[in-house]
Amino acid sequence: MGRVVVVAEGEVGGSPEVVRAGLADYVETRPKILTGHFSEYQVLGGGQGAGSRVHWRFAATSKRVRTQLVEVSEPSDGSLVESDANSSMVTRWQVADAGEGRTRVSVVTTWDGAGGIGGFFERAFAPKGLRRVYDEMIGNLGNLG
User: Fold this and answer.
1) Sign of the CA dihedral running 11, 95, 54, 66
2) Which residue, 28, 142, 21, is CA-closest to 93?
3) Distance between CA 55 and CA 42 in Å, rounded?
4) In whole numbers, what is the pLDDT of the chain averaged over residues?
5) How far apart are CA 30 and CA 102, in angstroms?
6) What angle do the packed helices 16-24 and 116-142 form, to 10 degrees?
7) Using an 8 Å Cβ cutoff, are 111 and 4 in contact?
8) Helix, strand, coil shares of the chain as percentages rounded to 5?
């Protein structure tokens, strides 16, 4: 079993404060930036940043579907951390000023991958697929303004 790490980043228009608030808004903004890989999206508690609990199904492929129960925390570094109660998956969103009214958005997801040949393929292909999903989400975030 190996650790799988996925990193994606991009720039969007808007101040870091506005972009960060949008990412932390699980009621209005987050559903608007999700891709077609997500279904059954439901806010179970909170809805704004830390303390939020959100359920969704994520289809990496037609045969690889995860039911996720995400619990949100906000560490003192200003990041937004989504921990899946159903797995070892943890996603950390961060924003930084990119100058000239733009914000750099970065996302890092980690989980304990499978072992054996299945784990080999997971480590080889899952990061690229998930990175495409995150690139699309960041693009969607930039299109909201």
Assistant:
1) positive
2) 21
3) 5
4) 91
5) 19
6) 120
7) yes
8) 30, 45, 30
Element spanning 127, H or E:
helix 116-142
Q: Using one digit for the tens of pLDDT, what is the confidence trace for 88-137?
A: 999 999 999 999 999 999 999 998 876 666 665 666 667 888 999 999 99
Give residue 9's identity as a one-letter amino acid code. E
**Structural contact between residues 5 and 108, judged by C-beta atoms closer than 8 angstroms:** yes
| Per-residue tokens: 48 | 């704004």
41-57 burial code (b ≥16 CB/10 A, e <16): eebeebbebeebbbebe
Please tell me the predicted confidence (pLDDT) of residue 93.
Answer: 98
Query: What confidence category does residue 66 fall into, taking pLDDT thresholds of 50, 70 and 90?
Result: very high
Are the C-beta atoms of 42 and 18 separated by less than 8 Å?
A: no
Q: Report the length, in residues, of the chain.
A: 145
Separation CA 96–CA 26 (nearest Å): 20
